[in-house]
Every structure is written in C-alpha cells, then in structure tokens.
Amino acid sequence: MARAPAGPVPVVVMGLGFIGQEIAKAALSSQEVELIGAVDTQPSLVGRALGEVLGQPAPKVKVMDSLERAVGRRQGVVLLHATGSRLPEVMAQLLEAVKLGLPVASTCEELAFPYLKHPELADKLDRAAQRAGVAVVGTGVNPGFVLDRLIATAGQVCGPVRKVTATRVVDARTRREALQRKVGAGLSEDEFFALVDSEQLGHVGLVESAALAALGLGLDCDDYEEEVAPVFAEEDISGGAFAVKKGRVAGMFQSVVGLEDGQERVRLELTIAVGAEDLKDRIEIDADPKLVLEVPGGVAGDRATANALVNAAPRLTAAEAGLLTVLELPAGR
Q: Quick one: DSSP state of residue 183?
C-alpha cells in the first residue's frame, strides 16, 4: 500500500449541482485537501469564478468544461465526482478520470457496489483503474455509511450474524427541493407509481447498501427484493420547498430485503417524507451478543455526503489500485 501524502491533497470537484457545491464547500473547510479546480458542463457555470458560484470566498478557480483543463499540470490530484446516480450515465467520466491518472471518490450510488447491477461495467472500470494505478470508490451517507459501512463496523464485535435490520427516517423538509420531488412529495398516488415504474422516483443505492451490509457481516445473500410505497400527508404540511396538501403524497417508504436460500438475513427500511417524525438511524444486529445502535435525529444527509467524499480523498491516494468499496477504506480518518 502506498504512503499517504505529507501535505494537503489537491482535489477537483466535478459536477456543481447542490451536492457538488456542498462538496466544494467541505473541501474549502478541510485542512487535508486543497481545492484546485472545478468542472461542469452547464453553459451558465463555465468560465465563472468558483467563489461566485458558491456564494463564498474561494481560491481563484474558474469553472472549466474539461476535466483535463481543470487538473492542468498538477500532480497527485483526486477527483471528487458528483454528476449522477446511475453508473452507465457516468461511466465515460470515470474512465476519463482514470485515464488521466486520477483517483476518484464519487457520489454515484450504483458505484457503491456496482457488481450487483452492472458487473461488466464494474470489471471494465476495475481493470482500467488497476492499469492506471489509481483507486475508485463510490461513497456518501446512503449508500456509503449509515446503512452499510456503519453496519459492517458494528458487526465486528458480534459473533455469527443471524439477521440485521436497519431503519433510516428523514424529514425531507430539511433537504434540498430536488430530493423532496425525487421522493414524490406533492404527487397523487397514480402519479407516484407511474414515476416509480419508469425509475424516475425513489432512492438509488438502497439495494447496493444491502449487498454491502451483507458482505460486511459475512452473510451470503443470493437474492434481493426491493419495494417502494408512498407515504401520504395526514394533514396540510408546510415548511418545505413547497406545501403538501392533505391526502397527497408526502414522500416514500422504501425497503430492501436480502435473502439467503429464501431466509431473510438483511432488511433495510428507508422513509424520506416531508413532515416525517421520529427521525433516526437505527441498526439492530441479531447475533451473540445482540447489538442495537441508534442515532437520534439521524446523520445529516447532504453535508455528511460532502464530508464523506472529502475525507476519502487522502485515503484514496494511499489505497490499493482498482475499484473499491467503502469497506476497503480505513475506518478512521
């Protein structure tokens, strides 16, 4: 394993949507990384000063439309990537970064455990990363921490695990408008299921988290079943990006069950809805000894995702080359 760099690691942020901007802000506040570039293809952003885009002081960095131009001649750069949730949509960007010799930490949810849905793309990316001598990982809060890495870490003090059940409840009013719409807030029941059927609604990455949790606990799940259902507003709800009327969809309940020979071994349950109550992250591991962990209020999603990428950057420079999962990153910072 390579040695970690002595000074701050230079990083470039690709994708300056809401999460990308949060990543850039987290990078600016970190002593472990140095933000040297930003990339986005939106014409309204290209050429603008990064500080202007972020609305806060920033280094004299202009937003580029080319990753190669953003990196320039700087050596040892890590890419913090935040452009999409589906691996096929971002594959070309990841391969370009690897070809340029850049380790990558990405928010792409399917990249958290890509062998589940895209084994051929995963193998291709792994081979490219190994040839280039760099590490690539998909990380964040969910997937990337609460419903997978934290579960695996807790399981280290347990005997053989019989089953794990984990629950995450999020009030969507505390999150960005795009996420409120992504979970169906304000829709009718028919509109909700139409978008679910066309894969335009729901949380990407929950099944990847279940597979990672199973891997981390030593469980051999051979099948995963996923369901998405609406959560309805029992009264008019305000306080979010828009009001939700009584009887309309307030958000979603999504679950994944991991099965081994037909027996339930992993159950992940995620509720994201405007006005959701009893907010928490809860993990229950059925083993000897039994273990229950609970984070009252839950881990903050957007800001924690940004921190997860920034904190991964120095670790990636010292990691083995190839396509990794978060389970292969050091547990500590």
A: T
